[in-house]
Specification:
- The chain has eight helices and nine strands.
- With 237 residues, the chain is α/β, with parallel strands linked by helices.
- The protein has one domain: Carbamate kinase.
- The chain has a nine-stranded mixed sheet with strand order 4-3-5-2-1-6-8-9-7, sandwiched between helices.
- It is globular, with a radius of gyration of 17 Å.
- It starts with 6 loop residues before the first strand and ends with a strand.
- The model has no long low-confidence stretch (mean pLDDT 94).
- Bound molecules: uridine-5'-diphosphate.
- Uridine-5'-diphosphate binds next to helix 1, helix 3 and helix 5.
- The site of uridine-5'-diphosphate has 25 residues, from helix 1, helix 3 and helix 5.
């Protein structure tokens, strides 16, 4: 299997890093996710990663808290995950740089677009922490933004479901999975792929999104090779 893409933006949800723990980081799970990432790098693919933070904290689920402060906490949670993924990749001898959208100089590089691209060109994995650096956004929006800035070929959204359905497969046994679906449909039917801000950004900048299951981490490599897994979201032809 040969890679189809040269530069990809991989979105890892916080949930995917928790494994069976459901909360926090299960390092064995993170290592398993990082093995196919190493395979991609060894095959010459440039890999940028945006990590979520839902395994620790989600701003929108914070109840009575001030939303902005709750979102600041969520962004810090993504920084913890970024460091965890970086450590796992380094244990597998992959060269990694973490860049954060909120400055924390002692811990990680600040986000600098050109520097990130330089890292990618040198075959280093770049992990983006702290989302967009702004409250009221999500790490899906950060993935769309960084993919546009990095001029990535595709966003690979690794999730807990194996693609995009016309209704929730957990509650509707007749839910149908799409092989491909347009941004327009995702937005109009409010399909649960990503939030509308992230989907709009992808639509406006024509960035395809592949949604696939992380249950089998090897899917990451299959996705990079253009195998028919999951659902592709793109513009209508
Ligand atoms: N967040 C934010 N701005 C961003 C990205 C994330 O404020 O640009 C905060 C927000 O509170 C969010 C949390 O960080 O709930 C964790 O991100 P997300 O929910 O996207 O993580 P995931 O669901 O992918 O694990």
């Amino acid at each position: 299997m040969k890679p189809k893409y040269k530069r990809v933006l991989l979105k890892l949800s916080g949930e995917s890093l928790a494994g069976n723990l459901k909360h926090g980081i299960d390092f064995d799970t993170v290592l398993k996710i990082c093995e196919p990432i190493k395979k991609c790098v060894d095959a010459g693919v440039e890999v940028a990663i945006v990590v979520g933070g839902g395994n620790f904290w989600r701003g929108r689920s914070s109840g009575e808290m001030d939303r902005t402060r709750a979102d600041h906490m969520g962004m810090l949670a993504t920084a913890i995950n970024a460091l965890g993924v970086a450590d796992a990749l380094e244990q597998l001898d992959v060269v990694v740089r973490v860049q954060t959208a909120i400055s924390m100089h002692q811990v990680a590089e600040p986000y600098i677009r050109n520097k990130a691209i330089r890292h990618l060109e040198k075959g280093r994995v770049v992990i983006f922490g702290c989302g967009t650096g702004n409250p009221f956004f999500s790490t899906d929006t950060a993935a769309a933004l960084r993919a546009a800035e990095m001029e990535a070929d595709i966003i690979m959204k690794a999730t807990m479901v194996d693609g995009v359905y016309d209704s929730d497969p957990k509650t509707n046994p007749n839910a149908k999975k799409y092989d491909t679906v347009s941004y327009h449909e995702v937005l109009n039917k409010d399909l649960a792929v990503m939030d509308s801000t992230a989907a709009s950004l992808c639509k406006d900048n024509n960035i395809p999104i592949l949604v696939f299951s992380i249950d089998d981490p090897e899917n990451i490599y299959k996705a990079v090779c253009g195998e028919n897994i999951g659902t592709v979201v793109n513009s209508e032809d």
